Amino acid sequence: MLDDNGRVVNVIALSGPQSLVSASEQNARQWRFQPKSGKTAVIVYQFLIQGLCQLPCASQFLFTRPNFVTITIGEAVIDHSPEP
Question: Number of C-alpha atoms within 13 angstroms, CB side, residue 12?
């Protein structure tokens, strides 16, 4: 839900992994929209895991207007070899 100035004041996640819902809701609260009479907005988050990476894994945040976000990150490679 949006206030009269287009600020997000209420967030409801409709679906998605619980481990990502909290961060997505927190991010959505930072968005600003053009004020409108309906006072609602939909934001779509798409999370992609592509390739392998050494920790810390870099991520990419791509915004596509008006309301689509793609977050891409690599899957961490975990070294299970014994330490010398």
Answer: 5
Beta carbons of 65 and 36 less than 8 angstroms apart: no
Sequence-ordered alpha helix ranges (H) in the chain: 18-28
Residue partners of 2: CB distance under 8 A and separation at least 6: 8, 9, 33, 35, 36, 39, 40, 41
Domain boundaries, the chain: 18-76
Q: Give residues with Cβ within 8 angstroms of 42, minimum separation 6.
A: 67
Running DSSP on this structure, what letter comes out for residue 53? E
How would you write the pLDDT of the chain (84 residues) with one tens digit per residue? 899 998 999 999 988 888 888 888 998 999 988 887 788 888 998 888 888 887 788 888 888 888 888 888 887 887 777 776
